[in-house]
From TrEMBL:
Belongs to the aldehyde dehydrogenase family. InterPro entries: Ald_DH/histidinol_DH, Ald_DH_C, Ald_DH_CS_CYS, Ald_DH_CS_GLU, Ald_DH_N, Aldehyde_DH_dom, ALDH-related_metabolic_enz. Keywords: NADP, Oxidoreductase. This is NADP-dependent glyceraldehyde-3-phosphate dehydrogenase. The lineage of its organism: Eukaryota, Viridiplantae, Chlorophyta, Chloropicophyceae, Chloropicales. The active site is at residue 269. It catalyses: D-glyceraldehyde 3-phosphate + NADP(+) + H2O = (2R)-3-phosphoglycerate + NADPH + 2 H(+). SUPFAM superfamilies: ALDH-like. Residues 28-488 form the Aldehyde dehydrogenase domain.
Amino acid sequence: MSSSNKVFFGELFDAASGSYKSYINGQWLRSCSNKVVTITNPATRKEEFKVQACTREEIDAAYEGCTEAQKIWRQVPLWKRAEALRKVASVLREQRDTIAECLVNEIAKARKDSLSEVDRSADLIEYCAEEGIRLLSKGDFLTSDAFKGTDRTKLCLSSRVPLGNVLCIPPFNYPVNLAVSKIAPALISGNAVLVKPPTQGAVSGLHLAQCFDKAGVFPKGLVNFVTVRASENGDYLAEHPSNNCLSFTGGDVGLSLAKKVGMIPIQMELGGKDACIVCSDADLDLAAKHIIKGGFSYSGQRCTAVKVVLVEGEVADQLIEKVLGGVNKLTVGMPDDNCNITPVISETSANFIEKLVMDAKEKGAKFLTEYRREGNLIWPCLLDHVRPDMDIAWEEPFGPVLPIMRVSNTDQAVEHANKNRVALQSCVFTKDIEKAIKISDSVQSGTVQINGAPARGPDHFPFQGFRDSGIGSQGIANSIGMMTKTKTTVINLNSPSFTV
């Protein structure tokens, strides 16, 4: 970290406790709980950072600040909101190296990919500023005589208005990008935001908070970043009476939160067992390239990673040969060295991955690569002849492990994909566009990629899942729609108290 960045971010750090502060109502505060949350470096497995474990009273104060600031912000002209977001994007670009360094140390993301995440986040904020102006400057004008039996005695004006306070909970794997994908639509829409960064990624999130602070254009309390022990206060954050909207990306905890938050809009993405269907007529070189990229980018720790390959038997051997050749070229090591495969997020995660691999081994899966693990670092593992009775056929490993299932036909592949409880994305490789559309129509997932690996971006594309993969649709326009509601004003022209 450069000396200038140390000065820039110095106020975030509390020397007495050796921990990072939370950002509440425009101030960097040490929690009165005197408790901290420890962040372990996945690569070294040693303590890297500490953040505050905020109390319920501090959460209350943050929500109160949001509520008061939102009353001011909702009256700010749309073009000024957009200008404010552009200033944040500018500060974020200036601090890309510092934030990327945090990503390397907190979540073991390769440095080049960490820099890319920061750049992508700045791009997203800028696009959201422009898209927000286009979407929110529009309204509808209706006359009553369009409906049978009525006269032109009423005029109806409808527009989009903010919900109030939006609680944003991003995941560890994209703690900056998936934070701004929630924050930017909320702010351009006139809402206030309370952000609960993930534990692994919390310091990156607090540096993001500093970018909003240094932009110097938001009312104090409009943007709050609160770090908590999720086991103690996670539910309290979500169920708080001042919470008007929840945008969550993460794991199964989202299922329980969805049942607890009551009648507020919720936007959830909870992962997926993304299936890759390879037809017998596919371009196998293309399919192999995308399977490698889709299955092993960021060590497979992505909700949109290819998590099972369903290949028609007559081309399985050819495809496997090509995929194996690419897997053997992947580099394995530390994130500072920009390796393709870096340590997974935690020992708990590594143990879960190993459990799935060992179950497959016991049940007869063929190992195309040797299973190897050192601490949290797991070498890329390719499994063939995986069957439905193996846990790996259904569970998300969220690591560099890819199962291959041989199927008799595409109907069998679709049937398997549709039985999974998590159905975020899928992909199909074929040269026959009619077949591709037919399969896309049959597969029950939020997105079907044709001749390409699953991917969340570009960030303005709709992004959603089926079944337990989530509720609602993301993407900039969809998020703005979810974080606002329609309000109508009806003018009664025949009212005796109204003079034309």
